[in-house]
Specification:
The complex is a heterodimer.
Chain A lengths: L8 E5 L4 E6 L8 E7 L6 E6 L4 E2 L4 E4 L5 E6 L8 E8 L12 E6 L1
Parallel strand pairs in A: 1-9
Antiparallel strand pairs in A: 2-7, 3-4, 3-8, 5-6, 6-7, 8-9
Chain B lengths: L3 E4 L2 E4 L5 E7 L5 E7 L5 E9 L2 E4 L6 E3 L9 E3 L8 E8 L12 E2 L3 E5 L1
Parallel strand pairs in B: 2-11
Antiparallel strand pairs in B: 1-3, 3-8, 4-5, 4-9, 5-6, 7-8, 9-10, 9-11
The chains are: A mainly beta, B mainly beta.
Chain lengths: ~110, ~120
Amino acid sequence: DAKTTQPPSMDCAEGRAANLPCNHSTISGNEYVYWYRQIHSQGPQYIIHGLKNNETNEMASLIITEDRKSSTLILPHATLRDTAVYYCIVRGYNTDKLIFGTGTRLQVFP
Amino acid sequence: DGGITQSPKYLFRKEGQNVTLSCEQNLNHDAMYWYRQDPGQGLRLIYYSQIVNDFQKGDIAEGYSVSREKKESFPLTVTSAQKNPTAFYLCASSIAGQGAPGANVLTFGAGSRLTVL
């Protein structure tokens, strides 16, 4: 599985867009990018995933660069409840397990 | 509502005792997973199972054991051989394992926090 690199922490003002970057420069052609988040002392929650096209759902948008070496998770209007650790994970087509790193701790402030 | 139920939420154990953490899902998912999380750290994979009566070791399986006798259940036993068992344990499930990337979205339980006294 490709390794991912995320900043350890970020801040965002409530109501503003939160843009969380992820580098995955060794990603291969059949590997998907997944995003999860974990609110303190809870189980992680799935947010979104994508292969090469940009994706959007009710929670967030995922922007993947054309060369697929990096991606950005966008929370368009961050709220205090979005304060959490966000994990970017790359998973291969022939791999049956997700490997979590240490993620980015997003702090949304009033 | 469908979901994953982990029990107990909090558990205290004396050194040298085995303890079993329960994980039950009613999502009709094929694959189930156990992760361990230490304070300030990411999740580490202990064991996973794609089908009933079959399971594989993850990255930190030593000192743990599992069984998968039913599709809905994947209990984890923390044995006395686990030298540092105090941690937050998370169970997860997904529709399918290998070969179905679009369906491999994990649903997690609320976790079980084990403390060794």
